[in-house]
Amino acid sequence: VQLQASGGGLVQAGGSLRLSCESSLRAFGSYPMGWFRQAPGKERELVASISSGGSTKYADSVKDRFTISRDFAKRTVTLQMNSLKLEDTAVYYCNAPNIRGREYWGQGTLVTVSS
């Protein structure tokens, strides 16, 4: 299983970015997916997750600003990030915590928010 993340970049504070994670697995919609991030000098943290049934959870720091969704036809999970803040700067990773007993990570995409 491969996860290909894209969409990172440089954006000014208050702006928006859309991250996408494409899965090579046809049945990816049957599995929960998530986005993590890791800022310099900090531990990796869960930003948002979506269950196979479509239930979503968010870190308190991104609630009401970020939205996670999935497109079954395109086998992608998207993280729409609005009202970005300086503290959102990090490398973002898509994650599949349990596909047939294994965990998978995308390669990471850098999001830089400038003032």
Please give a structural write-up.
This protein is an all-beta fold and 115 residues long. 0% of the residues lie in helices and 54% in strands. It has strands at 3-6, 9-12, 17-23, 33-38, 45-50, 56-58, 66-71, 76-81, 90-99, 102-105, 109-114. A hairpin with a 6-residue loop joins strand 4 and strand 5. The mean pLDDT is 95.
Mean pLDDT: 95
The residue ranges in which pLDDT falls below 50 over 5 or more consecutive positions are: none
Q: Globular, elongated, flat, extended or rod-shaped: what is the shape?
A: globular
The amount of helix comes to under 10%
Number of strands: 11
Question: Which sequence of SSEs, written as H and E, runs from N to C?
Answer: EEEEEEEEEEE
> Gap between N and C termini, in Å?
38 Å
Note the quaternary state here.
single chain
DSSP helical segment count: 0
Radius of gyration: 13 Å
Kindly name the structural category.
Answer: mainly beta
State the main characteristics.
115 residues, mainly beta, single chain, seven-stranded mixed sheet, four-stranded antiparallel sheet, 54% strand
SSE layout and pairing:
Blueprint (H helix, E strand, L loop, with lengths): L2 E4 L2 E4 L4 E7 L9 E6 L6 E6 L5 E3 L7 E6 L4 E6 L8 E10 L2 E4 L3 E6 L1
Parallel strand pairs: 2-11
Antiparallel strand pairs: 1-3, 3-8, 4-5, 4-9, 5-6, 7-8, 9-10, 9-11
Please provide a brief summary of the model.
This protein has 115 residues and is mainly β. It has strands at 3-6, 9-12, 17-23, 33-38, 45-50, 56-58, 66-71, 76-81, 90-99, 102-105, 109-114. Strands 2, 4, 5, 6, 9, 10 and 11 form a seven-stranded mixed beta sheet that branches. A four-stranded antiparallel beta sheet has the order 1-3-8-7, with no helix packed on it.
